[in-house]
Design goal:
- Helix content is 23%, strand content 32%.
- With 129 residues, the chain is α+β, with helices and mostly antiparallel strands.
- It has a 5-stranded mixed beta barrel with strand order 1-2-3-5-4.
- A hairpin with a 6-residue loop joins strand 1 and strand 2.
């Protein structure tokens, strides 16, 4: 009977590990982006990568000193964005946009996540439905 309990316990651990792997494979944004801060970029889209597990938007924008900054904005998974009407053509190279989001924690980088995207006049960028 004791061996049966040990075997059942081991099976339970193995099942928990297998089931837990997909959940643990995804990361939270907090270690990479500072949710206590906000940054803004007004510029031109240079690339929009619509893919899983994360889409990325690249924007060239001037900083306060007139220096050009290449921003990398981490977005959601293409499959989730598609469910809300987004496509690879929702944002096009050359579009002027305003992006406000959480800055990267890595010194010397210009990453952003959890961003709000708007037209230069403040109108939200929404996918066509």
């Amino acid at each position: 009977m004791k061996a049966w309990l040990v075997a059942a316990g081991m099976l339970g651990v193995v099942v928990a590990m297998v089931v837990g792997i997909p959940v643990g494979a995804h990361h939270a944004s907090a270690p990479f982006y500072d949710s206590e801060k906000s940054v803004e970029a007004n510029g031109v889209v240079t690339r929009f990568v619509f893919r899983n597990p994360h889409s990325f938007l690249y924007v060239d924008a001037e900083d306060d000193n007139g220096e050009m900054i290449a921003w990398e904005i981490e977005m959601g998974a293409a499959v989730m964005m598609s469910r809300r009407g987004w496509t690879p053509d929702t944002i096009k190279v050359g579009d002027r946009i305003k992006v406000v989001g959480q800055p990267s924690r890595a010194p010397g980088t210009f990453g952003m996540c959890c961003a709000e995207l708007t037209q230069p006049d403040g109108d939200p960028i929404r996918p066509a439905n």
